[in-house]
Amino acid sequence: MSTLEVPEPWAELMRAKDLTDRGKPSIAALGRKAGVSAETARRAVHGIGRISTKTASGLRAALGPGVLPLLGVRVSTEPYVGPAASALLTPRQRKALDELIHAFTQGDSAVSGIEGRRVGRAPQMSDELENLALAADDRDPIVEQDGTHHT
Q1: Is 65 in the same domain as 92?
Q2: Which of 24, 42, 68, 84 is the least crowded, having the fewest Cβ atoms under 10 Å away?
Q3: Buried/exposed code over 99-131 (b: 16+ C-beta within 10 A; e: otherwise)
């Protein structure tokens, strides 16, 4: 396949949105509609390298949610349910976990408005955030199932 050909099912999505040139799917038209360069669109279509949040969001806007599986984004309609043991966390531990989750789902690692797998690389946890998580675990009392407290 030459680099000018658009593979299926990308081609089908592009034809459905009239992103064509003389009847053939156009990567340049896709790039314009997605708000990215033609080269960035070409790399996404052909699965070359990683794509940014901006690119993934632009492709979703241009082609609709049908593009998400092509980008490797798993979309779940089921709400997230944490493990049963999470009910044992103290408020401080919950806050630390909230911060960790927030850190892993921000910036170039998440697709805005899309739930599921991150696109791109997860950010490194800062030392400060890691220390917060560890300190929260060290400072909070441990409550046993029988109701006794330990520090």
Answers
A1: no
A2: 84
A3: beeebeeeebbbbeebeeebbbeebeeeeebee
Alpha helix stretches (DSSP H) within the chain = 10-16, 27-34, 38-45, 53-63, 91-104, 127-139
Same domain for 102 and 128, yes or no, is yes
Contacts of 22 (CB under 8 A, 6+ apart): none
Among 45-49, 102-106, 133-137, the minimum mean pLDDT is found in 133-137
Give the chain's length.
151
Whether 14 and 25 have beta carbons less than 8 Å apart is answered as yes
Residue 110 shares a structural domain with residue 142: yes
Q: Give the domain range for residue 23.
A: 10-71
The pTM of this model reads: 0.52
Percent of the chain beyond pLDDT 90? 32
Domains in the chain: how many in total?
2
Say yes or no: 52 and 28 in one domain: yes
Give residue-wise pLDDT tens across range 126-135.
Answer: 455 455 545 5
Residue 18 belongs to a domain: yes
For residues 101-116, average pLDDT: 54
- Mean pLDDT across the stretch 83-104? 86
